[in-house]
Amino acid sequence: MEYKQFLQIHQYQLASIPENLWEPLFQKLGQDLFDAGEYLELHYGDPLDKYSLHVKKEGGLKKHGDIFLVDHAWTTKPETSRAQLLDNPQLVERLTSMMDISVEEDEEVEEEVAEAADGEVTSNYPDMEVDQDMIELVGSQGNVTEHRAKIALQNEKGDVIAALMSLTLHPDHDAQGLKNLEEAIGGQVKRDKEAKAAEKKKQDTVNKIMSEMWKFSQTYEYAVVDPSGQTKKESAWYIMDEVGSSMAHSDTPNCVCAPFIYVGRGTVSYSIIYPIEDIPKGGALTRDFVPADIKDPLTRKAYLQIYNDEQDAAELIAVYESDKLEDNDVTPFDQPFTKSLINTRTQHKAGDRKLRLYTTTEWVATNCKLENVELVDSEDQADLLWFSQDFKEFDKLTKGQKINQFENESCITFKQNLAALVKASYGTVPWSSTTYNLTTELAPFVGHYLWNKEHEHRNLWICKPWNMARGLQITIQEELAPLVRLRDTGPKIAQEYIQTPVLYEGRKFDLRYIVLLKATHKVEGDPSQGYEFQVMVYKMFWIRLANQPFELEDFDNYEKHFTVMNYGNYNLTQLLYTKFIENFEKEHADKKKWAEIQEDINEAIKSIFAAAVVKPQPLGLGAQEKAHPYEAFSIYGIDVMLKDDCQPVVVEVNFSPDCTRACKYDPEFLNNILTVVEPRVGNLDKALDAFNVL
């Protein structure tokens, strides 16, 4: 590659690097030259109690005087890192050394191995009770002690014949033969227990690496093209080699350390280091661990808590406690909904023009069966527009048109916005989990985590991107480090994990409700009069079940802790809501009747939309700057979980939900929605029977 071509391809990455270092970097990348060892050396325990990186060159390093390539020891993703480690013992050994990890031997397993080494034949089922008459029979027939006979019976699960055969298989069945048999069995037991000890040590080592990796990992984004041809960004986590990983943190660093993606002989990721201050011989190289977007000192302290958990936590805990007091002081407002449906009872008459529907939503186009509705190919021709993607051109809509989106509805469909709306409107409520925006509320979140730890409350949090569905990039975490670091790959929330959900046949579940929000002008045709909002919940809901029994462990086991199974290679449980209710009431006869639970769910949903339509933009949907000639409606997929006391918790509100499954369960599903939105196309009274109008 020529130098000019290098500059052109890498111009955006080079923009932040001093220009005098561009050509040296080009030369080192072209030669794959790792020459840091000629200038730098690792120290251990000097001055830190771990590895650190120091200048060994006479005269030291000068500001912007040189640039060094750093290799990456491991590149991974959180969801695949454990499997990678279990399959790569050489990588585990290298990372264990780099992270200065030690794993203690399990004393109990060591004792078992020692016992096996003595030749003692042990029982595989020591707690199994065996009839005394059987023990005496096997002992007399096998010519062994009752102790040996009992062990043989336990190992053969009470089968007398199998127990006798296990004792008499040796052709020279005498005292020496029995001793040889015992030694052979004892040797195998010893080998089995040694293998068990090795496997346990391997698992413990991997667990420690998984815990420590967040203190060493860095991240970068890259673009990929999905099967549909769309380009999307993904994140990679990497750990630098021994040189890069030994750099210490400083609030006033003397070096820059950053990833560099080199497009030369293929695409290769490196890191680069260059000094931004003069560093004398023996001086330690330091970098700033905190991302550049964090400026606030308290937020920096919260971020650095994962690198120094011995620092004073009182200030961060105080931030959390102050935040909690503010939540408790919020006065909820009255809810504005009425059950009257304004201007909705005009019926279609013979000879009337059909409603013209334009849609980009496949399940809508496929399932629209009303005679009085026709699909059109142009937005301009349409009376009703139904989009599956974000619509931005509201100013182009004309009087008489209706659209399936509200301006600023991200106030409820983005997870961080929904949490902010609930907090501002109600404070702390039982139907919403405590949620933190890790971009703007990192300090109170870390304070909450530390408060839980101080008060011996189990920390269990679910980390989610602001605006992704289908369970993408969602993880459950117990440790603080991954929760803090995962914010580096894009905006995230941390939400308290529901540790005591009510279960269905031992499995975790959530419920998907379809909610219709409709806005009509108070005076038909007069936009200046504002809007009347109506909200209604479709009576049919669907159940999403985990595939494995629920336990508060194995949090990276998707089929145990997550319920969305229809977008991966998982078994999907199909369960009609009426059958679910029937079975639920049988299984949980000691709890509330479903009608009471449903009423609580409806009230929680109503509370969200009451806040949304009252609060002004950008917090809510209300108080628009100008009236619009069009009318709007939207359907949302609302996910609800139940705690063990049947208290509903609204997990999230989803934009433009895929209702293919709803249409299979109820062929009239879409027709009912269209009729409520535009009553002239069908039988309104019949359609309304499918909803609970709030």
Automatic annotation (TrEMBL):
Q: Which SUPFAM superfamilies does the entry link to?
A: Glutathione synthetase ATP-binding domain-like
Q: Which UniProt keywords apply?
A: Ligase
InterPro entries associated with the record: SET_TTL12 (IPR057954), TTL/TTLL_fam (IPR004344), TTLL12 (IPR027749)
Recall the GO molecular function terms of this protein's record. Answer: ligase activity
| One Pfam family cited in the UniProt record for this chain | TTL
Which Gene3D superfamilies does the entry link to? ATP-grasp fold, B domain, DNA helicase RuvA subunit, C-terminal domain
Q: From what superkingdom does this record's organism come?
A: Eukaryota
Tubulin--tyrosine ligase-like protein 12 SET-like domain location is 54-112, 199-305
What CDD domains does the annotation carry?
A: UBA_NAC_like
GO CC list: cytoplasm
Q: What is the protein name given in its UniProt record?
A: Tubulin--tyrosine ligase-like protein 12
Source organism of the structure: Mortierella alpina
